Amino acid sequence: MDIQEEKQAALAAIAAAASTEALDQVRVRYLGRSGSLTAFFKQVGSLPKAERAAFGQMVNAVKAEVEAALESRKEQLAASELEQSIAGGVVDVTLPGRRRTVGTEHLISQITDEIVSIFRGLGYTTMEGREVETDYYNFEALNTPPDHPARGMQDTFYLVDNSGAAAKVSGESDVLLRTQTSGTQIHAMEKQRPPIYMLAPGRVYRRDVADPSHLPQFTQVEGLVVDKGITFGDLKGTLDYFCKQMFGADRETRFRPHYFPFTEPSAEVDVSCGICHGTGVVQEGPNEAKPCRFCKGTGWLEILGCGMVDPNVYSFVEVDPELYSGFAFGLGVERIACLKHNVQDLRMLLTGDMRFLRQF
Ligand code: DAH
Asked: Is 66 contained in some domain?
């Protein structure tokens, strides 16, 4: 076989290759491991010594020439294949791209963070409680006697107690899903001596059926202050400041006397309704006024419970009530989210409906 003839054949085949794929087959046929041009290299060793160098150089030169031809044909073919695919409309570069939706924090997390950051600004530290809690922290140490309605089966999810400990209340386990974040007050006072300025956000659970103003699982933020000389005035000032930061200076707040087992005196705080602006009525037509459904015509919406820490609670954690006083509060995050954005049904927050959630 003549090497020059083989080279001519290779160059012709390269010129004739109609696609990059066909070209690659040509490369293999001539320059592959068992290609016909490669075979000439194997002959070098069997030649008389004097001829080897010249023959070797010649074969190398042929190989280089064929490789150069392959390379330039490859570029040609690649360019024309790209042109063809564009012309053939395989890629329409004018079509809009696929939009990726960007995730955001859920409104409940946003509001929780907002609450935490308002109180951080006042020097509060945050603490995490536990969602599976014992009767002691959820009720007993919070001065909630066994016959208190809040302990009844209708409110609390009780868990199976594997510790073998006897139930405190007959028929009820000692372990439960916390119904309130207030138990973190006890954990905080056990861990730390006053002064305490503590905030504890977290989930709570109740045996309630979901309706526009109740959820069986929701989020609370607990607050606790214990220091020397703390008064009800400090409580009012703190929570009033919080409400103004949260809802805007134009929203009014009011304190209503209330009862909680672990605070004395206790109060609930309302914020003026953002739908009817505290009037209790909405104008439906030029001559028709109807009671506001959001606040049930009262002009006010309840957002938190609070009070001065009951001295009985201090006795569980060995804080001296002669030396220290304090206040506590518990905020409902979902409620605050709905009040702030005038959402009329708490359940909206949990439906996962993107058309609703995207607004926030
Ligand atoms: N734990 C109460 C509830 O879930 C809210 C509450 C009221 C918390 C008064 C407090 C408080 O810390 O002082 O309804």
From this structure: yes
Residue 201: name the closest of 224, 222, 225, 226 by CA. Answer: 222
Average pLDDT (87-109) is 84
Check if 129 has its Cβ closer than 6 Å to any atom of ligand 1. Answer: no
Is the CB of 261 inside a 6 Å radius of any atom of ligand 1? no
**Which residues does 328 contact at the CB level (< 8 Å), separation at least 6?**
182, 185, 222, 223, 224, 225, 262, 263, 306, 307, 309
Tell whether ligand 1 has an atom less than 6 A from the beta carbon of residue 260.
Answer: yes
- What is the pLDDT confidence band of residue 152, given thresholds at 50, 70 and 90? low
212-254 confidence digits (pLDDT tens): 888 999 999 999 999 999 999 999 999 999 999 999 888 888 9
Atom 7, ligand 1: residue with shortest CA distance: 305
Q: Does 245 map to a domain?
A: yes
pLDDT per position as a tens digit, 18-62: 999 999 999 999 999 988 988 888 888 888 888 888 888 999 999
Q: What is the rounded CA–CA span in Å between residue 28 and residue 171?
A: 84
Same domain as 301, residue 202: yes
Q: How far apart are CA 180 and CA 161, in angstroms?
A: 20
Domain identity same for 327 and 288? yes
186 pocket-lining for ligand 1 (C-beta < 6 Å): no
The amino acid occupying position 86 is I
Whether the link from the prior residue into 212 is cis, omega within 30° of 0, is no
- Counting from 1 in the atom list of ligand 1, the atom nearest the Cα of 220 is 4
